[in-house]
Every structure is written in structure tokens, then in C-alpha cells.
Amino acid sequence: MDETNPVEMKLVPSAESRAINVSNLYVGGIPEGEGTSVLKMRKSFHGCIKNLIFNMEHLDFTHVADYEQVDLDTCLLSERPKLALHKEDTELPPEPQPLPSLGQCAVDRAPEYIPNAHQFGLMQGSHFVLPFNQLAVRKRLSVQLSIRTFASSGLIYYMAHQNQVDYATLQLHGGYLHFMFDLGKGRTKVSHPAPISDGKWHTVKTEHFKRKGFMTVDGQESPTVITVGDGTMLDVEGKLYLGGLPSEYKARNIGNITHSVPACIGEVTVNGKQLDKDSPVSAFAVTRCYAVAQEGTFFEGSGYAALVKEGYKVGSDVNITLEFRTTSENGVLLGISSAKVDAIGLEIVNGKILFHVNNGAGRITAIYKPKAITTLCDGKWHTLQAQKSKHRLVLIVDGDAVRAESPHTQSTSADTIDPIYVGGYPADIKQNCLSSQTSFRGCLRKLTLIKDSHVQSYDFSRAFDLQGVFPHSCPGSEP
Known about the structure:
Shape: elongated
InterPro entries: ConA-like_dom_sf, Laminin_G, Neurexin-related_CASP
Pfam family, one: Laminin_G_1
Radius of gyration: 30 Å
Structural class: mainly beta
Distance between the termini: 56 Å
Number of strands: 33
Helix content: under 10%
Strand content: 35-45%
Keywords: Disulfide bond, Repeat
Largest sheet: 13 strands, antiparallel
Domain Laminin G: 1-75, 117-289, 294-474
Organism: Canis lupus dingo
């Protein structure tokens, strides 16, 4: 007791005392109907217990099989009034009641959609293939479309001959539009000075006619570029690749911007004829567009995004940053877990944010408790930073920091080589540092993991497994 000299007692040897079969371990009290004759009282313990070690194993109260009238993640004793010294006043104060909710979570409204508009960029190979009359574009090409995006890069459309000598494409690069075409004699490039990655709708028209190329954005015309070489005909197949390319198609002559553009694209016309997007020749990872959208990725509350298939090494230090908005009081934000015990986890539980780490010597948790239980489910954006430095944790939410540290200072590294699960995780995957299986519903953005001086930002469209997640588009407007 308190590191003082131990008190020992020898057991009287008998057949019964040689082994104790442990089936259940009760802490703080015993349920009705359970018990043993060696206990002199049945009254439950009143107070706080932590750092419980049983047979050399640190037991984590958040993994209990069952509990009753126990607050698993806080100790309220310090907040109770001091007991009076008078005999009549020595009754314990009443049990603290849960704080009344100061409001309700924001209303979770079903998103509205735009007719005849499609969201691309959900995966790297998102695309439509739309048929058109290739003979009509030989002497003159005019492609017009409407587009809304927050992204800075991606392929908007592409058409080419089978041998890819002749082609025409519109790409977004660095937030600006670049129209390139080749009539078989050399590449002509037209760029437009207007940035379009502002989340607003823009009307774009690209045109090649009589050895000239130009582009118009919202009525503003680019400088005209003279066609390279003496070619006059554009000889392409009658397939317009819209929003991206199939993963098996390798475009050879248009640079490295071949991934699907994270954008909503409305009506498309080729030489004045509207293309039928309802019956594409090919379609992959394309969905409807939200009527009002903002930057972020939407998690519908049923799945997860799985990143880094080869596995992420947490080690001794890692710094996680992200932004989130939700109308729910519960949801998994992120988990990385080994098959043994080493793991880290971020989750929202009953309106609080929990940052768990297990370096192998038991779980430690930093808990952020907002002033009101509904603060974080107000549907507005919140910033989060979770920093692990050996056995110490810092959790910063909207600028407010909380800390925690393990008493096992020699245990400093969470040894994982496992995927990063965001917004939830599969039922058959073990997560040692998450107490909830509730999938996150809401939007996430700007996820980065910083190790040493290496900053790694994660694009959800590059996830190796996506369930119930819609990258690069979040319903609703910025508050």
C-alpha cells in the first residue's frame, strides 16, 4: 500500500486453495445474485479507481464487458463539495446527475441534388464515355460545358484517335484551364487566365477552327493561339471521355494530369449538339451533384475510407490534423491498429473527442470536453490536432488543448504497420484504440499526418477501399 512494506500471509494448504478459477473480475461492487462467502460486505465502492493491473496486465475500463452506475472516463470527486464534520452532515452528497443539454445537435437535412449534373473524382478513374459524331469535328471542334470545382487539378475531357496521334483535351492544372490539341503535326496549347477552383459554376468553351485555337470562360475569351504544324483535320474516335479516363486506358501525349477531375459537370455539347449523359458507353465512380456544395468529403454514416494499404508506421511520434463537421454526437474519426495491442484512435463519443494511444503498456486517453454536449455537432467546421510524442498526448480542438501521459514512460512507440481507417472500419478489422463502432456522418477535409518533418496529405479518392464515402464534395454551404 503506497509503496510501504508488504503484509504477507501464508495460505493454509488444502485441496481447494491450490487453484482459483477466475471467470469474472468485478471491480467496485458485485451484481445482484453474484458473490462469494469470503466477502464481509456487499456495499459498492464509492470513489475513483485507475491503473488497474491484474496478473501483470494493465486493464482498460473502456473495454469492460458490463457496468452499472460507473462513469468510465472521468472522476468527479474533485468537483464534489467537501464533507461536513458534523455527524448529521456526514451523509455523502447525492450522485451527480448528467448535465442538462444546452441545446440539440443541428438538424441533419437530406441533401438536394442538381438534375443532369454529375460528380466526378470519387476515385482516380472516375469517368463517363459519351458517343458523338467524329466526322462533325474533323474541321471544327467546339466543346462547351458547365463545371463547379474546388480542386486544382484533373482531366475534364479527352478525345483521341486509336493511335493517339490526333487528340484534344481540357485539363485543370494549378487551378487554371489548359486546352490542348494535336492535328497530327504537333501539340497546340491554349491556357486561360481565369482561376476556376472557387466552388462556383463556370461555363467553359474550347474551340479549334481554321488553324486557330481559343477558349472562353464565362464569356471571357483567351488569347488566340495559331495551330502548330500544317495539319487541318482532327481525326479522332467518336468517344468523349468526360471527367477522367478508365484506369486501363493510358493517355500517352497529354502529360501527367490524367486523374479524374474532382468536379461537378453539367450539360456538355459538342459542336452545338448536347450529349446524352443518361446512356454512356462506359461509366465508373460517378454520382449525383449536391445543389449546394462546399470543400470536403462526405461520409454518410455507414462506412469508411481505408488509406495506405501497405501499412502506416505510427512509431514514437505522429501529429494528425483534420477538419470536420457533423450533426451527430458519436462517430469514429480515425484508427490505426496492429493485431496485438499497439494502436492509436480518434473518435467522438457523447459529444466529446477522445484521442487514444496504446504503446503496448495500456491505453492512455486525452479527452476534450466542450462546454456543451452539442458544441461539436452544430454542423459547423471544427479543427482538430492530435499529437503523440512518445508517452505524451496533446489534443487540440478549435484551439483548446488537453493533455494526457502514460505512467509507463519507457513504453514510447506504437508499433503498427497497418492501414489508416477514417470515418469507421470494417466489422472484421480489430481496432484496439477505438471504443465505438459508430461510423462518422458528416464531412472531413484537410487530413494530414506529420512524422518528423514529413507532411503527408491524404486524398480520399486514392483510398484502396471506400464504403459510403463521397470524396471531394460536401453538401451544404459554409456557415
